[in-house]
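Input chain follows. Return structure tokens only.
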Amino acid sequence: MKFLAVIPARGGSKGIVKKNIVDVAGKPLLAWSIEAALAIKEDVSVFVSSDCEEILKVASKYGAKTILRPPELALDKTATEPVLLHAIELVQTQDESFDYLILLQPTSPLRNHKDIEKSIKLITESGADALISVYEPSHTPYKAFKERTDGFLEGLVDNKTPFMRRQDLPRTYMPNGAIYIVKIDWFKKTHTLFANTTLPYVMSEEKSIDIDTQEDIKKVEEYINA
């Protein structure tokens, strides 16, 4: 099996300036994902896709191959899927052929190579079309209410579910953005990272930090240095 790992790292960021290369525990944020991908045992090619030359230089320094992304794929509103399709099409023109696509978002530095390897083992042994890393929230969404247009509450599922015992409710997960794996053929056909046969790779909520603020960086560094 051959794996194409793509790390999308756009130059523009509003919350934290140059977020993808900001220092986190002694190295650029982007480097944590590159090193995790390069450390896995499987046959993997690691690419960073960016519109920013500075980011691509950092990516090369840490051992990743690079893809210069066109400006129209680096807008605030640009979805991830077109960026991944661009990477696949570009790499395949270089006579490369892959079985699975791995999306590793650079804002999840606590996901390590062991997490990726375990995810690969899960999806390849099961025959599933896709896998998403998740965590189990401390509060199940089944107990949530939503507001109707008239201002009154109703249960998110129905009006009985919020009052059921937690242990009687289905197990639920939240995506943490750390790992997505999908069969290349499925992704090229559907342009989606989700399939009817999508497995969960469960991580702890503590390791599921997605960096968006300086406070998030502080939490990550505390975890790393603990």
